[in-house]
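User: C-alpha cells for NADH-quinone oxidoreductase subunit J, please.
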Amino acid sequence: MSELSGGEATLFWVLAPLAVIGALGMVLARNAVHSALWLVVTMLCLGVFYVAQAGPFIGMAQIIVYTGAIMMLFLFVLMLVGRDASDSLIETLRGQRIAAIVLGLGFAGLVGAGLSRALTGTGAIGLAAANENGNLQGIAQLLFTKYVFAFEVTSALLISAAVGAMILAHVERAIGEKPSQVDRMKARFAPGSYPGPKAGPGVFATSDSVATPARLPDGTLAERSISKILPVRELTSQESAPKGTEK
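Assistant: Done. Predicted C-alpha cells:
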C-alpha cells in the first residue's frame, strides 16, 4: 500500500473530523430534519474521499445521487409528514432506549473487530479492475457481470424500503372525514361567518373607520358590517341621519 501524498493527507485530516462530526450529529440530533442535514455533511465528505482515491464515478454518484437526490427526498418527506421532536420521546416499551444503545454499541464492536481481523495485513485490491478502460467502464463491467446478483438484490431492498416508508407515513382516513370543496364553500359563506365585513348593495358608511357600522337602505345600522372583535363606534344623531335628510 503506497503512502499518502501531502495533499491527500491534508484532505483526509480536514474532512475526516467533519465526517465523524456529521455522523455523531445525525445520531444525537433530536430533530429529524437536523439529523438528515448532518447526514448530508457526512455524505459530502465521503464523496470527496472517493474522488481522492481514484474513483470519480462513485464519488460523483455519492454527491449527486445520494446527497443531492435521495437526501433531499428524505427532507421533503420529513417536512411533509411533520414529525416533531416530541414524537421520538414517547417510549412504547420501557427501557427500549437503553437496550437499543447497548445493542448498537455491541454490534458496532463486533463489526469493527471482524473487519480489523479480516483486513489486518491485507492490501487494497480491486482498484485496477474498477479503473480498467476507464473508471465508468470498469465499474459498469463489474456491476453487470461479476456482481450482477448482488446489484439486483440491493435494488430490490431499496424498493422495499421505499414502499415500507410510504406505508408507514400513510394515514388512513374515513370516507366522510375529509370535507369536500362544496362543504367548505357552504361553511365559509354560511350566515354569520362571512370572509370579511362586506356590506350589501346600497349600503354606505359615514366614516372611514372600520369600527363604524354601515347603513342599510332604510337608514338602520348593519350589524354584520362590523367584526365582532372590534368595539362599535357610537354615532351621534347628526351622524346617524342618512345623507340627504339633513337640514
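User: Anything notable?

Assistant: Residues 236-241 have pLDDT under 50 and may be disordered.
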